[in-house]
Every structure is written in C-alpha cells, then in structure tokens.
Amino acid sequence: MRIRILAPIVIVFLAIISSGCAITLRSSFQDQCKTEGWTNDQCDVAFYHGLRQKFTVENGNGGYEPSYNVLTRELVLRIFDDRLTDLDDLLDYKNKDEAKFLKEFGLRAYLERQEKIFKADRDRLQLVDNHSKFREYMGESSSSRSNHHDRFNSASVFVEDLAGAYPFVSTQIEQARTNGSLKEIERFTWFANVALGRKEPDPNDPEDQNKFIWKPIKLGVEFVSYKIMDGEQPKDNNVEYIEGTRLEIADNGNVKRESKPSVKVFVSGGGYNSVVVIDKDKEGEIGFSLPDFVENSQRVNSAQGLMTGSLFSKLFYEPQSKNRIPPKDPPPIVVEIAPVGKTKVDVWETNANGWTVPMRYKNDTADNYSVEAKIKNSELDGFDHSKPKQIEHFKKTWESTGRVVEYFRPKAPYDQANLTTVSVYGKDVRLVTVDGDVIQGVVTPNSNKFLQDKPYEISYIQAERRWLIKDEDGDGKYEKKRETFETNGAR
Which of 65, 156, 207, 462 is packed most tightly, with the most Cβ within 10 A? Predict the structure, then answer.
C-alpha cells in the first residue's frame, strides 16, 4: 500500500518542481548569477546544489529523496485537483484524439487506475483538513483557518487506521453509547422514486450531445435520532445526535443498507448550532467512510428537516467518470483471399460436438454483465435515425477473464421494425413503438422478455486472440469457430 500511494506523491512533487517552482526559481537564480559575475557552469553547479539542499534529504544510503515538507498542504491539494482534472479530460471519450491515442497504446486501464490512486490520496489529504475543521466546530481546538498553509507531511498519507487517527466522534456521545444512556428516540426513513431522475448520454450514440436518456432513480436514507437519557422521563425530547445511512433499492423492491452511516449530525446541547459530517462516496467506492464535508449549521431539531437540496446533492453525488461511454467502433474490414479457381474462402472451423468458451466467465449469480442493443443497419453511412428502427441483436458483455461477449436475437414482438426509441443502460431496457407504447424492463440473468434464451454467437479472448463461436441451427451447439478482429467483440 505504501509504495502504491508514494508513486503519485512523487509525481506531484516532480510536477511542482518541473512545471512551476523550478522554472521561476531557475530564471531568478540565473539573473542573480549574472549580477554576481558567475559563469554559466558556476551558476548550474550552485543551482542544482541549492535544489538538493532545499528540496531533498539524504536517505542514509548515499542517495537523496524528495523533502515533501517544503510544500504547503494547500499547494499539494491544488496539484492533486489539477491532476485529477487532467486525467478526467484525458479519459473523456469526447476528446477523440486522446481517446484514439489511449486505445492505440492500451493506456486507458492504466490511467483509470492512476485516477483512482490520485483520488484516494486526495481524499486522505482532505480528511486531515476536515478533521481539523470538525474539532474546531465541536469546540475541541482553536481556529483551523491556517491549516491549508501548514507544511505537507507525507505521514498523513500513510495512515492505516484512518478512523482511529481522525475520529469524527463526540466524546460525550461515545461515553453515553458505552454506558447505555444513549437511546434512540426517532427513526425516520426517506424514500424517493423519480422516473426522470438523471439525464445521461444516450448509450447508443454517446457522441451526440443532443441525444440523451432519462434514467430512473430509487433512493433512500434511514435517519436514527438519539438522546442522552438522564432518567426514564427526561425534561425534553431534544435530539442530541443523528445518524443517516444510505439505502440501495433494487428493482424488485429489496432494500440494502450501507454498513456505515453517511451522515452524522452533532447537535449542541445548549447552543444554536449543529455540526454536520457527510460522506459522499457510496459503499464500494474509493473514499467510503471518509467524510468529504464538515458543515456548521443551525440547530437541527428533527431528522425530518435534513433532506434539503444541498444534502441530497452531496449524499447522491455522481462522478463524471460514470458517464464515460465508449463510442462504437467502426465496422471491421474483412479481406478474404481465395485460391485460384475458388470464389469464396470458408474461414470457419467446424466441430460436430460444438465449441465452448474455455474459461469460466459468469459469477455465482450470473449477473456480472452489461447489455447493449444493436440497431439494424445503424453502422451504415447515411442511416436515417428518424425512421422506425429494428433491433438486430442484444449484446451481453461479461466483466470477467476473457472479456466474453454473447449475442442474442430479440424475442417477438421486439424484433419488429416499429421502434422509435431504443435505450439500454446497464441492464435496463426502454423501448418506444411508433404507436407510442412504452415498454420497460430489466434483462435478468435467466429467461426474460427481451432476449431469446440462448445466444447465437459468443466471442472471447484466449492467448491474446479473439475468437467467435456460432450456433448456426439454433440447437444450442456452437458448431463453427473462427478468429475475429473485432475490438472487445464490438459489432
């Protein structure tokens, strides 16, 4: 973990030296050299000796390491933000030149990993400032306004027990929890089912900014309010502490509760303010359980008044990276060379017993896939999007070893050329017919209303080569196999 975190810190440090501080420092140093009458060689020696003295420390092995404490925390945070912005721009499929470069050299996966590492490190740095702010609001320390100007300490990045090092807790509340006097006095659950919940790029044509889909969202938060009880009949019912936990609501109505609260509210006993701590990252995401916001607000009397627009946007924040939808690859060019006297080459290998995918690609619940729909003839130049459309096939892309892709014919009546809209996001399908009928549903792991039960073709990668197997007669056996050059099974 330490080595993984150290890499981006070194990059940040070198970025500051090479692109910012060093250029200004070097030019001013050269001007001073001229004033002193030094030669260029003398100036270079003095400059690099000064860099080593100012920006590095001896490591005990005869070498030198960067000295991070010459930088302020504010500067390091700003550099991290700039690097994350650069990575977001670079990874945006709308930047076609960059996208082509990343694809050509296979760099996208590497940069996406670097983005996650930078975000994790940035969250850790921000956590220190948020904790200082929390202690100030709770009256446990003096003003933290100068914290941003404190020198950066790399030890803050290498903390393993973050919850222990930076606790966002109240001593009074924790003591009451331990001795049993902290009692629940209110439980309030907030739900929202919004049909037009989130506008996202049309996955069938993500490059057209005028095309989009509305994704329905189902949200929930459970708030539990507590009071320190000084007897069976307290003098008042004022809330002293609130925890809010996000709820994940599945399409079948099942509710899954996150393991840790995403909102904590500490209510002043005799004052008029509350301290609100918010974690915007959902469970499973980088930064989950690390508070992103600490706010000093007016006194909260009940959890029912918490779900304001500000809290909603922080609790259900959606990063821009989730809207990165790769564009469709152009259709491949297939060249067949026939021997003299023949007009066609059969590129398929046949197996009467049927070919199979040589690796396990489905998880235990067989739901590790996403779905796309291919519109018939949409790859042709001059395709008229205003005319009724017909689904040629559905494609299941499995997140697994071998990057397996399954192709399914649509079931009737969804195989007709009578559709005005075809939208697929994740596993959700939405169709609109020329008569105005709206059909919505989810492509479930087993039999469902949109896809035929068995794929007619399957492609996969083995030994860095992509293969395609085909069921020609619908008997469930894939009698034919050939190598294909379609990228990621795109068709």
Answer: 156
